[in-house]
Fold:
Amino acid sequence: MNNFVKVSRHDGVAVITIDNPPVNALSPGLPEAIGAAIDEMNADPAVKAAVVIGAGRTFVAGADIKEFGKMTSGATPRRSLLPFLLRIEDSRKPVVMAIHGAAFGGGLELAMAGHYRVASPTAQVGQPEVKLGIIPGAAGTQRLPRLVGVAKAVEMCAEGKPVSAPDAAALGLIDRVIDGDLLTGAVAFAREIADMPAPKARERMGKLGTLVENAAILAAAHDAARKKQRGMKAPLAAIEAVEAAITMPFEEGCQAEQKLFTECLFSDQSKALIHIFFGERELAKIPDVPKETPVIPVNRVAVVGSGTMGGGIAMVFANAGIPVLLKDVDEAALDLGMEKIRKNYASSVQRGRFKQAFVDERLRLITPALSYDAFSDVDIVVEAVFEGMALKKSVFADLDRACKPGAILASNTSTLNIEIAGATSRPEAVIGTHFFSPANVMRLLEIVRGKKSSKEVIATCMQLSKRLGKIGVLVGNCRGFVGNRMFGPYRREAQFLVEEGADVEAVDKALVEFGNAMGPLATGDLAGLDVGWRIRKEYRHLEKPGIRQPFAEDRLCELGRYGQKTMKGWYRYDENRRANVDPEVTALVRKWSAEAEIPQRQISAEEIVDRCIYALVNEGARILEERFALRAVDIDIIYLNGYGFPAYRGGPMWHADTVGLPKVYQRICEFHHQHRELWAPAPLLKRLAESGKTFAEFDREQSAAGLLERVNSA
Ligand code: 3H9
Structure:
């Protein structure tokens, strides 16, 4: 035994406590220690049963994910948990698994090797491996269907969603939910069953059924996986592994699972998703804003502007249980805003996302306001009025007067410089909180650091993002911040491609096949082509003369084709918002291109993807070097959560690493040669490519050398 496991005795019951902070992951040496403790318990005549419990905040969060990278790179040999789990299941004396916090992945597989499972009411169990691009690899796909039936096992293994302890009890996965002290309850339970036979999950057959009986379940699971997790291999592998539980004896089923697990583990998809898992946990680490930075308590908030964004943001706060004032300039605008919020909630109830009682309570938390009178009470205000510097500055001057000292003044601006701080007497309290549309759905929140934003204000917003169920990423204050600054070149290339002869739907199709949630042109139609058009008009003076600019979208806007809102944009929309190819657009663009003397040619799907995706990568590399993002992985997370980039490709920067930076750099050089200035390779990309390094290595080196300076707020 070793430091991972402690054994104590409680009146004939051995208590085996797993202690591997922070989440009791099954690091090398830990399973061996549990196995040894079980052997010891079996050899001790004074002991009749064992309880296995986790120290600290959780039972076992699964295999140690850090080990996977070492295994796939060949640094450490592949380890199997299966023999240890069999050793537990074959114990002569019963083993009770006592679960609090989470029993996830290998943690649930460990629990299922025990003879009984008890849990705290708040505990959760699950097989979330698919979210890491893998499948359960320690007989989870074989024991779970034996305990809960094929339908639930397929759902849990292919979708990865956790199940609460009471639900798991109803499924037969948990034998007793214990109110009060878990250890006391688990020891009492162990005494109750000590003299009974120890049931083995692997021998249970009652819930499995035949392949014919399960055919419809498996077919539906395949369909759902292809639709909801498009492009991902692990969900399909998980279904195949559960199917093996039906068609093969346990041992053979385990072998089939092992084969699928190994294929998934060594895939690029798994490496990408593991990169994101650790990246999401890195986000909170801001070099000059340490964990201990004090935060401002947020109990009441206000939102200025009840349009689509403002209303959505008010819902985000209400959904988190925070009372919110929603202000607009006149009764009519406010009524419209509140009506939209009610409609949004009603459709959530209809779709089964929320219960009516929850919605009623949330609506009570939103108080409409026509003046700033009640603003003296709020801890943070989010301004979400129309984009336009003059208006924003005047709102901030009003807020400065109306809000109490110490209140945070945040702007939801998406592109304007947050130097609106200058309109207030408290620039340290001013910050950007860039929500993505629809705000109540999208997880991303760019937190924009102003030149003078204080550390407390930054720490508060980062913490608040978690409370709101968002992924907060700290970014610097440049035009477009990180996400939209990169989106500009990406959509620019999409337009250029159409102007050079590609069909509108061919551009979108190539990027959807790459894995993006939507194509760039259809995305423009959804967001409203007029939004970018207005911004471009405001910034036209910044464009360098003589450099090619896309024209098609501006011309479409001049014709009143703003996208879905006018039923016409790049596509023509029917009353169900279905996009149809519009020959009129094709003819118009061809005519405009001829007038501009742009040579027309056949363009391959490969070129479409390279032009659009490498435009993201090149701009991302500039942002990184200019320190408007702290890490390459921060950029990746922004793209996954705000722009529908496929998670299994790990984000644009990780995707470039996977393709190989020399290859990406070379392609960008070709585009530079063909298309000139706009494609000048980013110096950082050039350096990394020439020295054989990756963005991930750049992140690691910066972090190890303490070079992660604060994000650029210039
Ligand atoms: C698996 O089990 C495969 C099996 O089938 C067996 C195959 C043979 N490993 O999330 P938090 C770290 S695959 C290593 O902020 P929370 C995390 O990086 C695994 N490290 O806490 C962070 O480190 P740091 C299947 C892990 O309270 C710290 O712990 N299991 C692991 O918000 C705190 O994490 C999963 O996918 C791990 N398994 O949430 C579960 N888990 O402080 C993954 C966490 O240095 N984990 N860390 O940044 C979770 O879902 C959440 O961590 C959990 C706690 C809900 C447990």
The chain has a mean pLDDT of 94. The radius of gyration is 28 Å.
